[in-house]
Design a protein that fits this description.
heterotrimer; A mainly alpha (339); B alpha/beta (519); C mainly alpha (398); A: 339 residues; mainly alpha; ABC transporter involved in vitamin B12 uptake, BtuC; 14 helices; 2 strands; globular; disordered C terminus; C: 398 residues; 73% helix; disordered N terminus; membrane (chain C); ABC transporter permease (chain C); transmembrane (chain C); transmembrane transporter activity (chain C)
Chain lengths: 339, 519, 398
């Protein structure tokens, strides 16, 4: 078994699949990270992805352009995020419950639209939809091993990598990043500084909508070449768990989504050696929960050790990280629902 | 007289129907420091929120420089030159001081939308230099002291061009030295031509710092005086609307055996500050031990640990010989510790639940209320609740109505009614009369004395010095998370002396303090 | 409609009277409006996509009553969503958000299948044992998100959704590897023993004894929530967890126990569905009745007493939609879309409290006007200030 897994890890094909299956999760996780930083939980990411995947397929089929399809998909995804914002921010609805509602709306709605257009409820194969191109990199592809991993990936895999950099800059270098953190960490402080928290939250919702839109389009126009019902397969929910593991940073999101990507890719291989596919399919979700628990355990431990040291005078006063940082604040990631 | 900022008939009704400001006329002149005093819930904060545009008035007008203004957000107020330093700092802990200072009006690199940290630091240092409010621009807010955070708050307002500064109870969190330093800085600002509205309920500070003083009570403006022409008694009377009860009638305490011994308790808060620093004390039957101190000096943490609501990092809590250190509130209650929580809105009651449910929350499992197979004897519960409603004079239509529909005083009576009928030997009481009307205060005080006379051990924590002094048999003073003084006989000390301890200017030696353990 | 009355006799007395009435009346009205709005929206959608909208609309709205079979089917369709709705009432009373009932229900069905296929028990006992086992499995699963939240502050909705995938895949695995009927081309378990079936209530319809079991559970859950100490603990914890902890209620165990009970009900629901409606496990995908439970519980305003009403409403919509989609060109899934919209509306405090907020504002202004009219000297309050109190409480916090 260990030999087998070592063999898999050595194969370039495995890592090719890892990148491919990490990309969509990474994109939505970034979306979850940025909204959570602003103090709003976007549970509708799943719905956003579904609409993006469907709209991308439909529009690309009718216009013949994958690009127009993708634009339309992103637009649809952003619309869902905006509806969430409208209800959660303007009409005082519980954001999490709205997420549940919008996901129901989307699971039913996408199938409804698909059926109304094609007469099929399961798959969009009757639509001549387009594919977002795969990128072969001239010289790199000849490099042994690495070439096989990097070259030939879909454009969106590269876009996901770019998104990490972009979100990192937005959060840490751009002006809006400070405003997002202020809104999420101390909303009263943000208000007092003349920042409109509702605007900031809407901004992050739009960004998360764009990211989920790209991810959704990838699923139906790259990862596979059709829309199938429930194509997002819970990735929008996984993102909300991965976001906690990511600890509120774009770099953290890479690691968090890799947990899912590595297991997801491994699943394909494990299936080949006769392990039941159902159990393997459950693995990524299980590992996401475990990753979440482990990360929280580590953080709690570190915190309590520091507190004790502080009391014993081993650390200067005020050298503790505030609880608010790292996604464990009340209004944010972990606290959630109750209270 | 020409006033810089003035209000006329300002009223504020909150959506829940609360009338927080009633027909308030208020005025402040250019270049003065105006004190605004009033008890908790008198409407000071609401008035300031109206002036600062955080809330909009239900009726009435605000004039700035003689022109009526209508702020739709604090942004408008800032633009008009009004700045506010909130009681709870409006800072983002994980950002640096410089980043906090420029938040909302950030310097940018050229025409990009990238944040220019260096420029922000430069601005902070320059501004600090100019007004003599020096701060560490690059440090993160979590890493600096409370007084530096406050300086940063003042700088933030100045950075935004504030000519009028509103300071909401700025000294509540400061040491005496820091308070003095703040006063010097504020006077310097006045000489720069700034106008300052200084909110406080500490008369000493008002008399030390302010030119004029306005008094609010019950949402109304009661009066305004030149500080030089008025004495403290007048102001104090206006604040409370009655002659201050300097003494509560009570007999001498007959202190009995020790029932609760707490040793060496410590607590570190979320900001990494030692909120409670190795504190020990003991409670005796038939005695009220008062705890005085400026708010936020560890009293809340002490109460929370003694009642099981927070965990101590060290030491022990022993109740009637049983070690109950860091046990859950339920265990402490079963051992006979009742607890009046300082915040009745978020902890002391469940607002959406009925009065009856609130009154039964600590005893629904007692045999008289719980039948077989987990069924509750609802008739018995209703009867018991109605009885408490009657004896504690809770004004309501029925015990089935939600607690949220009650007034502050009646809400507090629900808490007290429950805790005082809990058949506990030890009562931990925090801020029993905060935001409660006069009639209810006297009622509550009488009840506490009654409890003591029945032989209960009482720990009384209140930020109302008058209250603790008149109620307590013995006293401890807390400062910076430590007990700094113990008075076996509360009447043997004066408010002046207590003030020195509260402000950390004086400290008894460990031996004297240790007497609180009665060993 | 009652404004005129308010100004009738003693103004203060009648205002107060209305206060209590309206607090109960208005939410019901808003809930009803949301339901009507959803139906209208559904009709609108039919007109957009259908080539024969009139027939489709007729089938949608009247379908459940056009044939006796349909009506009995409606009653049958109420059963699973009554169970998940009840389960979620408990969760929502606790003010948690978890959807783990989905796993409980699904796994309950799997456990019942195993027992229905493998065990030989006398009729009557057979489904009962299956229900109990399914309930226990569902209950244990139900506690997982609560434990994760309490120990590691994991958002219970997120973790429950993860678990739902895990248990769904695990359940399919069990069916495929241990219970599969290899003679079938589709995924199906081996047929249940005859003794496993619940009796039919009406011959030649699908209406089975599970309907009565569901009704019994409506009563049981009502009693549990409003008459027992556990229900009391759950309600107080939901009303204010900080207060509950302060009053000595063991909030962590209460939350876990409530989730157990909720999952238990979900698990039984799964078992009842199997033994009442099917001859073998034939679900090709997870029916996700928990998501329907959300709307059932919300329409019932998390009060189990009203669960039958909202379950009836949802079943009515679903059966109508089903009937319509079989005879026309509108996909059944549009019902899920409408469900989403209803939840959105019901979740919005601004909408839910629209009347109340308006009323409070009006009262407040009236109070203020009265105050302004009163002589300004009325400050020397001797306790007369109590009338407008409330101010004191909220002000203290500010």
């Amino acid at each position: 078994m260990i030999e087998f897994i070592a063999g898999v890890f050595a194969s370039s094909n495995y890592w090719f699949i890892v990148l491919r299956s990490t990309a969509p999760i990474l994109l939505v996780t970034l979306g979850a990270v940025i909204t959570e930083q602003a103090g709003i939980k976007n549970m509708a990411l799943e719905g956003s992805m579904l609409w993006a995947a469907l709209t991308g397929v439909i529009v690309s089929a009718f216009t013949g352009s994958p690009w127009l399809g993708m634009m339309a998909g992103i637009l649809a995804s952003v619309t869902i995020a905006l509806i969430l914002g409208l209800f959660a921010l303007k009409l005082d609805a519980n954001a999490v419950l709205c997420g549940v509602a919008l996901n129901l709306f989307s699971t039913g709605g996408t199938v409804f639209v698909l059926y109304s257009l094609t007469g099929d409820k399961g798959i969009s194969s009757s639509l001549p939809s387009k594919i977002i191109p795969f990128i072969k990199i001239p010289f790199v592809e000849t490099i042994p091993w690495i070439g096989k991993v990097i070259s030939g990936q879909n454009l969106i895999v590269w876009l996901a990598a770019f998104a990490v950099v972009a979100i990192h800059f937005v959060l840490n270098k751009a002006t809006i990043g400070r405003r997002i953190k202020a809104t999420g960490e101390n909303i009263e402080a943000a208000k007092a500084a003349g920042i409109d928290p509702v605007k900031v939250k809407f901004f992050t919702l739009i960004v998360s909508g764009i990211l989920a839109g790209i991810a959704g389009c990838f699923l139906s126009m790259g990862y596979t070449s059709n829309f199938t019902s429930g194509i997002a397969a819970g990735r929008g929910y996984v993102a909300n768990a991965a976001q906690v593991v990511a600890g509120g940073t774009a770099i953290g999101a890479i690691f968090a989504s890799l947990i899912f990507g590595l297991t997801d890719a491994m699943a394909t291989y494990l299936q080949n050696i006769g392990l039941p596919p159902e159990l393997i399919q459950a693995l990524p979700y299980l590992v996401t929960i475990l990753g979440f628990i482990v990360v929280t355990l580590i953080r709690d431990r570190r915190e309590s050790i520091r507190k004790r040291q502080l009391l014993e005078g081993k650390l200067p006063k005020g050298s503790l990280k505030p609880i608010a940082v790292g996604g464990s604040n009340g209004n944010g990631s972990l606290g959630g629902g109750a209270a | 007289m020409d006033y810089l900022l003035r209000t006329e008939g300002l009223s504020k009704v909150y959506p829940n129907g609360t009338l927080a400001n009633k027909q308030v006329d208020f005025a402040v002149a250019k270049g003065e420091i105006l004190g605004l005093v009033g008890e908790n819930g008198a409407g000071k904060s609401t008035l300031m929120k109206l002036l600062y545009g955080e809330e909009s008035p239900s009726s009435g007008t605000i004039y700035l420089d003689g022109k009526p203004i209508g702020f739709s957000s604090s942004q408008d107020a800032i633009a008009a030159g009004i700045g506010m330093v909130h009681q709870h700092f409006m800072l983002v802990p994980s950002l640096s001081l410089a980043e906090n200072l420029v938040l909302g009006q950030e310097p940018k690199k050229g025409k990009s939308s990238f944040f220019d940290l260096e420029k922000a630091v430069a601005i902070t240092e320059e501004l600090g230099e100019k007004y003599n409010l020096k701060v560490f621009a690059r440090a993160r807010v979590v890493d600096v002291s409370v007084s530096m955070r406050q300086k940063l708050e003042i700088l933030k307002a100045l950075y935004r061009g504030a000519k009028i500064l509103i300071l909401d109870e700025p000294t509540a969190v400061l040491t005496p030295q820091e308070t003095d330093e703040l006063f010097v800085e504020l006077q310097a600002l006045r000489s720069h031509g700034h106008t300052i509205i200084f909110i406080s309920h500490k008369l000493n500070e008002i008399f030390k710092l302010c030119d004029r003083v306005s008094v609010m009570r019950d949402g109304r403006m009661i009066g305004t005086h030149q500080v030089a022409d008025v004495d403290r008694q007048t102001i104090s009377n206006e604040m409370v609307g009655r002659e201050v009860l300097l003494s509560v009638r009570k007999d001498k305490a007959k202190a009995g055996e020790k029932v609760l011994v707490a040793k060496d308790l410590s607590y570190i808060d979320d900001f990494g500050i030692a909120a409670l620093d190795h504190v020990s004390l003991a409670l005796r039957k038939g005695e009220i031990l008062g705890v005085v101190g400026v708010d936020g000096n560890g009293q809340s943490e002490l109460v929370r640990i003694l009642t099981g609501s927070a965990r101590s990092l060290s030491g022990s809590v022993v109740v009637k010989g049983r070690d109950l250190t860091n046990q859950k509130p339920g265990a402490l209650r079963r051992a006979g510790v009742a607890h009046i929580a300082e915040d009745r809105m978020t902890v002391g009651t469940a607002l959406p639940a009925s009065i009856e449910d609130n009154l039964m929350a600590d005893r629904y499992f007692h045999p008289e209320y719980k039948g077989r197979a987990g069924f509750l004897k609802q008739a018995a519960m209703a009867r018991a609740a109605t009885e408490i409603v009657t004896t504690f004079d809770i004004r309501c239509k029925s015990a089935k109505q939600p607690v949220s529909s009650l007034s502050g005083g009646n809400m507090q009576k629900v808490v007290i009614g429950r805790e005082f009928t809990a058949d506990a030997d030890i009562l931990v009481i925090a801020q029993p009369t905060r935001g409660v009307d006069v009639g209810a205060i006297e009622f509550i005080h009488k009840r506490i004395i009654e409890m003591r006379d029945q032989g209960k051990a009482v720990l009384l924590v209140s930020s109302d010095l008058q209250e603790v002094m008149s109620m307590s048999d013995s006293l401890v003073v807390m400062n910076s998370g430590k007990i700094v003084a113990y008075f076996e006989d509360a009447s043997a000390t004066t408010d002046k002396e207590l003030g020195l301890y509260m402000l950390g200017l004086k400290k008894q030696n460990p031996e004297e303090i240790g007497k609180v353990l009665h060993e | 409609m009652s404004d005129a009355k308010t100004r009738g006799p003693g103004p203060l007395a009648s205002v107060k009277l209305f206060f209590t009435d309206r607090d109960k009346l208005e939410p019901a009205v808003i809930t009803l409006l949301a339901a009507i709005f959803a139906i209208l929206m559904g009709v609108g959608l039919i007109f957009v996509v259908s080539k024969d909208p009139v027939t489709s609309t007729k089938n949608f709205l009247l379908g459940p009553f056009l044939r006796t079979y349909n009506f009995y089917y409606l009653l049958v369709a109420m059963v699973p969503i009554t169970f998940t709705g009840l389960a979620l009432c408990i969760i929502y009373q606790l003010k948690y958000m978890s959807l783990i009932v989905d796993s409980s229900f699904y796994t309950g069905a799997i456990v019942a299948t195993a027992i229905g296929v493998r065990l030989a028990l006398p009729a009557g006992w057979h489904p009962a044992v299956a229900m109990l086992a399914a309930g226990l499995a569902g209950g244990l699963i139900g506690t997982l998100p609560a434990i994760l939240k309490i120990k590691w502050r994991a958002n219970e909705l997120v973790s429950s959704l993860m678990f739902n995938y895990v248990f769904y895949f695990f359940g399919s695995f069990v069916i495929l590897y241990f219970l599969r009927d290899r003679n079938q081309t589709i995924l199906a378990s081996m047929p249940f023993q005859k003794t496993f079936a619940l009796p039919k209530l009406v011959e030649n319809t699908q209406l089975h004894a599970g309907f009565i079991i569901a009704a019994v559970f409506v009563a049981l859950v009502s009693i549990f929530l409003f008459r027992t100490k556990w229900g009391y603990q759950i309600r107080i914890t939901g009303a204010n967890p900080k207060f509950a902890a302060y009053a000595g209620i063991p909030v962590a165990s209460v939350a876990i126990f409530a989730h157990f009970v909720s999952g238990f009900i979900g698990g039984i629901g799964g078992a009842v569905e199997m033994s009442g409606l099917y001859r073998a496990f034939i679900w090709q995908m997870n029916p996700s009745y928990a998501w329907d439970g959300v709307i059932v519980a919300m329409l019932a305003r998390k009060n189990p007493k009203f669960v039958p009403v909202s379950a009836f409403f949802l079943a009515y919509m679903r059966v109508g939609a089903d009937f319509m989609s079989r005879r026309g060109d509108v996909a059944f899934e549009f019902i899920t879309l409408l469900q989403g919209i209803i939840i959105l509306i019901l979740a919005s405090d601004k909408i839910a409290n629209y009347f109340k907020a308006r009323r409070l504002r009006r009262n407040a202004f009236a109070a203020e006007a009265a105050l302004a009219a009163a002589p300004a000297g009325g400050v020397r309050s001797d306790g007369g200030g109590k009338g407008t109190a409330g101010a004191a409480g909220t002000g203290g916090k500010a």
